[in-house]
Design a protein that fits this description.
This protein has 14 helices and 7 strands. A hairpin with a 2-residue loop joins strand 4 (about 405-415) and strand 5 (about 415-425). With about 500 residues, the chain is an alpha+beta fold. The protein folds into 3 domains: about 10-215, Up-down Bundle (Four Helix Bundle (Hemerythrin (Met), subunit A)), CATH 1.20.120; about 230-290; about 365-435 and about 455-495, Histidine kinase-like ATPase, C-terminal domain (Heat Shock Protein 90, 2-Layer Sandwich), CATH 3.30.565.10. The strands form 2 sheets. It has a 5-stranded mixed beta sheet. Strands 1-3 form a two-stranded antiparallel sheet. The chain starts with a helix and ends with a helix.
């Protein structure tokens, strides 16, 4: 059981490597066994008839010696003599391989006799050659006859020994042939057994891998079709397949739990979302209307008083122009209070407002405009530009000792339209600028010359309308260095050109 658990915990890579290694070891072992035995039998086969081959070669050399000797005796030429000595030396070397020890074995005894007779035969042939060269006719004839008789004995012995060895070798060959057939049957059995064992191991290994994968694939198809009530796939292995299966089971359980929770809350969530959308729409509209509705009536009264004073000291034309500007200003404030307007309408309102201020304060404000008229059709919430100009006058220019200046600019900067209101007034400190940009300051109240729509009001309305927090930025280089308020409005080419 412990070994089974250890195998279950082995990774797929290790399992495959073990199976591959076992196959290689098995095949290598079989090949090594076959190689050793085949080489053994081949060597045995080679050695069986070596003795017969050697005896045949020995008999051939013996015949060559006898023939070359006879040839010399008949011709007495130098070539014939050289041929004799060459064959004589070859035969002498051949008989050295014969065994000369005493033995009770008949074949070994014959081999010993052949060696002794061959040595005597070579002695006789040499004496015959010497006698012939010395022209001793009687002597070389006798020795030639003796050598010929010895040659006949030796040939007979070699033939007999060769036949005896052949019989023994045939018996050995039959035994060796039977052994080779047995080896062939054994090798076939081992190969078949090894192949069967290898197939069984591979089948077991592949089954341990593919069986859980098939179950997992079947379950995954059911989940893909939307059936999350499938049974959890059971897995006992701790390899990669087991890890994937467990992760899949956990995923199905998590999805099932999530769907259950989702079904329980989907109706409430849908209602809440619809309500949230309606509330967001109504809230934005209410906030815009509420913020735009804050107009201080004191400004109206002060303006009318200034008009009455001007009527007393000036002629009717100036009074008429002043009253017309005042009328246009308040007509715009009342009519456009709840509407989205074009930027050029806001600029016209600023023109009226600057005119009224210069009448009230005897032309104390120098007013400049740098307007790219191509950009003034963009829609913005009403009453956003005049409050900024009003703040520039009230907090920047009203109490300065130098000529006040307000510059209104509209220009394109990359993908946004910039609307800038700059005054050369008292400016502000860096800390105050940071607080205003982060909307962390409270606006001053109680100024009766203000229309009540302050900087925070404008920033809130623009952020709500354009759904972006950083629509307005305030900058100042320090005290007595003026202040610039810039609107950063999104620009779309097809809407403005």
């Amino acid at each position: 059981m412990g070994r089974k658990n250890e195998f279950v915990g082995i990774s797929l890579q290790v399992k495959l490597m073990l199976a591959f290694a076992a196959t290689i070891v098995l095949v290598f072992g079989m090949n090594a066994y076959m190689y050793v035995n085949i080489n053994y039998f081949i060597n045995r086969l080679d050695s069986i008839y070596v003795s017969n081959i050697n005896l045949n070669e020995l008999e051939e050399e013996l015949t060559n010696v006898q023939t070359s000797m006879t040839k010399f005796l008949n011709t007495k030429t130098t070539d014939a003599m050289e041929e004799y000595y060459k064959h004589e030396q070859s035969y002498r070397n051949a008989i050295k391989t014969l065994k000369a020890e005493k033995s009770s074995d008949k074949l070994k005894l014959m081999e010993r006799n052949i060696k002794k007779m061959s040595e005597h035969y070579l002695l006789l042939t040499n004496q015959t050659i010497e006698a012939k060269r010395g022209r001793n006719v009687e002597k070389y004839k006798v020795r030639y006859e003796n050598a010929t008789a010895s040659y006949s004995y030796i040939s007979t012995y070699i033939y007999s020994l060769n036949n005896g060895l052949f019989k023994n070798n045939s018996v050995n060959y039959l035994a060796l042939s039977n052994s080779i057939r047995s080896l062939e049957r054994l090798s076939t059995f081992l190969i078949m057994s090894s192949a069967s064992a290898n197939i069984i191991v591979i089948l077991i290994l592949t089954q341990t891998i593919t069986r859980p994968l098939k179950i997992l694939a079947k379950t995954a198809n059911q989940v893909a079709e939307g059936n999350f009530d499938v049974e959890v796939v059971e897995v006992s292995s701790h390899d990669e397949v087991g890890v994937v299966t467990k992760a899949f089971d956990q995923m199905v359980i998590s999805i099932r739990d999530y769907i259950t929770r989702l079904k329980e809350s989907v109706e409430n969530e849908r209602n809440l979302k619809e309500r949230e959308l309606r509330m967001e729409s109504h809230l934005k509209d209410a906030q815009l209307k509420y913020l735009q509705a804050q107009i201080n009536p004191h400004f109206l009264f002060n303006t009318l008083n200034a008009g009455a004073q001007l009527a007393m000291f000036e002629g009717a034309e100036s009074t008429c122009e002043y009253v017309q500007n005042v009328a246009e200003f308040f007509r715009y404030s009342i009519k456009k209070n709840h509407e989205v307007v074009a930027l050029h309408e806001e600029i016209e309102l600023v023109d009226h407002y600057i005119y009224i201020l210069n009448v009230r304060y005897s032309g104390a404000i120098h007013y400049e405009k740098h307007i790219d008229n191509r950009l003034t059709e963009i829609e913005v919430p009403s009453m956003i530009l005049q409050p900024i100009v009003e703040n520039s006058f009230q907090y920047g220019l009203r109490d300065i000792e130098w000529e006040g200046k307000i510059v209104l600019s509209v220009y394109l900067n990359g993908e946004e339209i910039c609307v800038s209101v700059f005054d050369n007034g008292v400016g502000m400190e860096e800390e105050l600028v940071k607080q205003l940009n982060k909307r962390k300051t409270r606006e001053k109240k109680g100024n009766k010359d203000s229309n009540g729509i302050g900087l925070n009001n404008v920033m809130e309305r623009l952020s709500l309308y354009f759904n972006h927090e950083e629509v307005v930025t305030i900058s100042s280089e320090g005290m007595n260095c003026g202040t610039e308020v810039t609107f950063h409005l999104p620009w779309k080419c097809e809407e403005n050109f």
